[in-house]
Amino acid sequence: MARSVTTRRKIVYTVLAWGVGLLIFFPILWTILTSFKTEADAIAAPPKFLFFHWTLENYAVVQERSDYMRHLWNSIVIAGGSTLLGTVVAVPAAWSMAFVPSRRTKDILMWMLSTKMLPAVGVLYPIYLMFIQLGLLDTRTGLVIVMMLINLPIIIWMLFTYFREIPGEILEAARMDGATLRAEILYVLTPMALPGIASTILLNVILAWNEAFWTLNLTAANAGPLTAFIASYSSPEGLFFAKLSAASVMAFAPILVLGWFSQKQLVRGLTFGAVK
Amino acid sequence: MGRITLDKVTKKFGEVEVIPPLDLTIEDGEFVVFVGPSGCGKSTLLRLIAGLEDVSSGHIQIDGRDATEVPPAKRGLAMVFQSYALYPHMSVRKNIAFPLRMAGLSKDEQDKRVSGAAEVLNLTAYLDRRPGQLSGGQRQRVAIGRAIVREPAAFLFDEPLSNLDAALRVGMRLEISELHKRLETTMIYVTHDQVEAMTMADKIVVLRAGNIEQVGSPLELYQSPRNTFVAGFIGSPRMNLIEGAEAAKHDATTIGIRPEHIAISPTEGTWQGKVGVSEHLGSDTFFHVTGTGLADAITVRAGGEVSLRYGDTIYLTPEEGKLHRFDAKGLRI
């Protein structure tokens, strides 16, 4: 039975939804506005909303003081590399769990997820020492490996969910048609799971891009991505809010654009299989 | 060539034995139907032959070679699935060509064989469509096309018609039989529909709980069922099975008489009863006769239209020589 919705109720809900939406968006909006203010305007009380002296100076200073492009490149390499490596490892793992499950498959999935419940700082010390020993500290390679390991459970879980939606009979048909395991995954499974794989990749790029704990703790001048770039503007001697905001905007702009253009894909991917 | 031999094949899922030791030989070019109620192990048996499941013990031979450990791709068999299992992201042409592509055939050879199969199956006009744009019957034909281009040693069909509507099912049944006559390739066909089994098979294998109850031609099974299970399963409507004093008169624990082997009369006969529900098919009428004291209801077939009303008294006479007798174990005497 369809529920009847009165006009008044519609208006109330619309206003409420917009209110909540704006509340969530407000910090981002404020950061963007602050990045165009002078340092004095940025800390003015009462705060200035739109009527202040608009300036691009902060962007110029930030670009001059630190190498934005290098940090951007590091972010791209770390987010892209870890996601790619993770996907290559996760596709066969998810395949085996979805199509040839053992009695322990569920436990393994839960165990993998449980690693995400552990506070990251709990393993910081051993990983830090390992990185020193292996000479991986402040290297992009090291970060790619750590990010891949951190996001692997999520990639496997997501792919597992998508793969399970694919009827096993189709893969069996491929086997009967003479396909090797490689051909079965390459020509049948992957094209069929492509929407799912795409949204998994997208989500993991975003997660890796935004990750700050490991990137801040394991990098310094050399391999620091954009998170480290932002952090370098929060100084203990007093904050330069306008410059910090400009750095933040420069850091989140690329991922915001990516997210904006792929939101359809993301939503479809995240709700895939929820309803048949 | 497609002679398939199963030698003491068993299958266990965990502790549960779904196929107890089973021997079966399927001759080259035969159309064999595995039939039985759901859960009888017929699909499992087919999947064991296909190699999609591993046997727990025993051996499978295909054309004299031991294929027990051979992966499905290398057994030289083709399978048509209940859900068609077409590749949704490929055109009909690519679906049919897929096994050829996997076999590494040249593009020209692939095209030639695909066109040939499409012509046989009336699919030429649909070659560039995706499976999602086809009707159920067309999809089933694509699945068959994908199977025939490989020129396999044998075709395996796993309930291929159960997703089609009744009219289409009859049509496809004829098409598959026609295909078998033309290709003369071994076909193994799994169904729970005994009408499909009777109409298509050279040889029927009746299964129950993983055991073979009887193997024989459709008429052998119809005329001399080995036990009460086969007697009740083959034939539509099913055979009337009568126990008790009436059976004892014939020195049996159970007697069976098919609905078409009972004569009816309004005035005299061996058994007396009342007309219950009647089913009018036009060509035949089936009466469910109650109150005979023999069984809950006796089903009787009468040719054409017979006007008997609900509650009328009726006399039944079983045809001489058509009575089946079974002992206490349910085996034919």
List the helices and strands and how they pair.
The complex is a heterodimer of chains A (276) and B (333).
Chain A (H helix, E strand, L loop, with lengths): L6 H28 L4 H4 L14 H9 L2 H32 L5 H10 L9 H11 L5 H25 L3 H9 L4 H30 L2 H6 L7 H6 L9 H21 L1 H9 L5
Chain B lengths: L3 E10 L2 E11 L4 E5 L6 H9 L6 E6 L2 E2 L10 E4 L11 H11 L4 H14 L15 H13 L5 E5 L7 H18 L2 E6 L2 H7 L2 E6 L2 E6 L1 H6 L4 H6 L6 E4 L1 H4 L5 E4 L4 E4 L5 E10 L3 E7 L7 E6 L9 E6 L5 E3 L7
Parallel strand pairs in B: 3-8, 3-9, 6-7, 7-8
Antiparallel strand pairs in B: 1-2, 1-4, 4-5, 9-10, 11-12, 12-18, 13-17, 14-15, 14-17, 15-16
Helix pairs in contact in B: 2-3, 2-4
Write a concise keyword list for the protein shown above.
heterodimer; A: 276 residues; mainly alpha; MetI-like fold; globular; B: 333 residues; Rossmann fold; OB fold (Dihydrolipoamide Acetyltransferase, E2P); 2 domains; 32% strand
Task: Describe the model.
The complex is a heterodimer of chains A (276) and B (333). Chain A has 276 residues and is mainly alpha-helical. Chain A has two domains: 7-59, no CATH class; 66-232, Orthogonal Bundle (MetI-like fold). Chain A is built from 13 helices and no strands. Chain A has helices at residues 7-34, 39-42, 57-65, 68-99, 105-114, 124-134, 140-164, 168-176, 181-210, 213-218, 226-231, 241-261, 263-271. Chain A starts with 6 loop residues before the first helix and ends in a 5-residue tail after the last helix. Chain B has 333 residues and is an alpha+beta fold. Chain B is built from nine helices and 18 strands. Chain B has helices spanning 42-50, 92-102, 107-120, 136-148, 166-183, 194-200, 218-223, 228-233, 245-248, and strands at 4-13, 16-26, 31-35, 57-62, 65-66, 77-80, 154-158, 186-191, 203-208, 211-216, 240-243, 254-257, 262-265, 271-280, 284-290, 298-303, 313-318, 324-326. Chain B is globular and about 75 Å long. The mean pLDDT of chain B is 90. The chains are: A mainly alpha (276), B alpha+beta (333). The A-B interface holds A 167, 169-170, 172-180, 183, 187-188, 191-192 and B 50, 52, 71-74, 77-79, 81-83, 85-89, 98-99, 102-103, 146, 150.
